Amino acid sequence: MKPNPRELIFALVLLAIPMAAWHLEFAPRQRRQTELKANITAKQAKLNKLFAKKQLSGAIGNLRTEIAESKEAVAIFRSRLPDEKDIDQIVREVWRLAKSNKLSPTSLRTIPPRKDKQFTSGAGPHGEQPVLIQLEGNFNGLYSFMIDLEAQSRIMRVRQMILKSQDKEHSGLVSATIEFSIFFERKQEGEKWATKI
Q1: What is the 3-state secondary structure (H, E, C) of 131-192?
Q2: Among 72, 86, 141, 190, which has the minimal tally of Cβ within 10 Å of its Cβ?
Q3: What does the domain layout of the chain look like in residue ranges?
Q4: pTM
Q5: What is the pLDDT of residues 97-116, one digit of tens each?
Q6: What 3-state class would DSSP assign to 61?
Q7: CA separation for the pair 181, 94 (Å, rounded)
Q8: Fold for domain 84-185?
């Protein structure tokens, strides 16, 4: 059976409708969807970059705050460090503390630093001077002396303390040998140790 021309035209029109729908409706919609997906991807990438920059700027802000706080802490510690030339005044102050607590200082002298027991390096901007003091007196006076020594505005560290009772009658009289360190700031020509932040 041979199709007549009318059936052929009808079949061609039926085939042309989906093809026309594809070219006129579906293909442009698919291109538009592809463009929208590309735009969304590009905008998402920009958003991720902005978010990373915001996090970075927040971190930088936090670092600036931490640096400012660290500078304040350094300033506080520097104010508590005497100059190297002021060590003798601090030693005299320790002597006066002992006298004010009714102790009899029998010896007070600086001793050479021992490299194995130092917290500071010989080449750095800070140093420590060991001092040896020998005291005699009432234990309560020694206790008060240690509290007063701890309350000093200068940074000091007690390295060693040897206590001996002076009598067998438990009268509270003791002799003490105390080794402590006074921390100080070295001053060099042109402030070679200036902090660089």
Answers
A1: EEEEEEEEHHHHHHHHHHHHCCCCCEEEEEEEEEECCCCCCCEEEEEEEEEEEEECCCCCCC
A2: 190
A3: 1-79, 84-185
A4: 0.54
A5: 999 999 988 888 888 877 76
A6: helix
A7: 12
A8: Alpha-Beta Plaits (3.30.70)
